[in-house]
Amino acid sequence: xxxxxxxxxxxxxxxxxxxxxxxxxxxxxxxxxxxxxxxxxxxxxxxxxxxxxxxxxxxxxxxxxxxxxxxxxxxxxxxxxxxxxxxxxxxxxxxxxxxxxxxxxxxxxxxxxxxxxxxxxxxxxxxxxxxxxxxxxxxxxxxxxxxxxxxxxxxxxxxxxxxxxxxxxxxxxxxxxxxxxxxxxxxxxxxxxxxxxxxxxxxxxxxxxxxxxxxxxxxxxxxxxxxxxxxxxxxxxxxxxxxxxxxxxxxxxxxxxxxxxxxxxxxxxxxxxxxxxxxxxxxxxxxxxxxxxxx
Amino acid sequence: xxxxxxxxxxxxxxxxxxxxxxxxxxxxxxxxxxxxxxxxxxxxxxxxxxxxxxxxxxxxxxxxxxxxxxxxxxxxxxxxxxxxxxxxxxxxxxxxxxxxxxxxxxxxxxxxxxxxxxxxxxxxxxxxxxxxxxxxxxxxxxxxxxxxxxxx
Lengths: 295, 152
What we know:
Chain A is mostly helical. Chain A has helices spanning 19-32, 43-99, 103-124, 176-180, 188-200, 204-257, 261-285, 287-293; strands spanning 2-4, 127-128, 131-132, 144-145, 152-153, 161-165, 168-171.
């Protein structure tokens, strides 16, 4: 069957679409990137968007808390590491003292233990972000002070919690009393002092007991460090969870609010091209010619 | 996609959702069934036509099943008065086309940065009597897939 202009009859297919409206809507969408310009544009979407936004701001709050908590606990871990090292030195020196044969040697070791006691006081007063790590809630005054054998703890025993998610809390500190053992006798400082005294007195039995007591403290602090590690893990998991919740919420917001930029731009260009092409064609062919064909 | 028929005294129109133009009311006369769909879109059968704007030669071929699927077409005779094609009798029979005067042609338009072209070797033929149509690929024709219509 041959089909050419001479034989074919014209069929009118004129259906008007509200394209000028559509074009300006598309332009606004593309320039702002948002499909909801006013709540009236998409009321249920606007409500959902508002809920999603408040969810996002809660996540931001948790993120802030988690980051701060992570900083604290990392500092705690580092300080505990140094305390462990210091105690280990004291333990080694205690052993040396147990095996030493001269009074002078023991006397020197005793002095060294005194100096380690001062080091431990300093470590007990570690700060992070301008606040004392090991004072419980007393974060503005140094929790430990005193000369060897007369060290006191002025902090409290409170464990502070950070809220890192909906109903999820992680402890951000260990009180100094727990770390140094001031609430379990004998504590680190008393132990050091007793050992130093024993060395000066050449009291073999007391030296042996003293070294034993140091070992007990070492074990305790090593266990505490394990707890710190676990909390760091919890914080890391909380942070990951918050990140993925944020991504989920953000893409939900995007679905409700955002317009697919690529699609909008393609649509816009297509519409614009059509208008350009159409007006070019009209002007070339002459309106009369076109109208004749489009009836 | 929800298609509801709304009864009006004179004509039946169908409500068609489109992503580009919102919701349109399309009279039955402007609805077609492409019996094999379009090349590359064989599953889409129900389409409708509407002009891009009053006085515009561009006609949208909008899927009635997928709001996002729409093609720009033109009547090739608007731009190529000498357009002259031969379709096989079996093609004609498939859409029940008996009289040439019942045939309507539209050709798909491609728009890119430099040019607006139309595909003259794969026109869509519609039988206006029964609203059935198909896209045919012409063999042995001098036409190609890109004929410029921006400068006629």
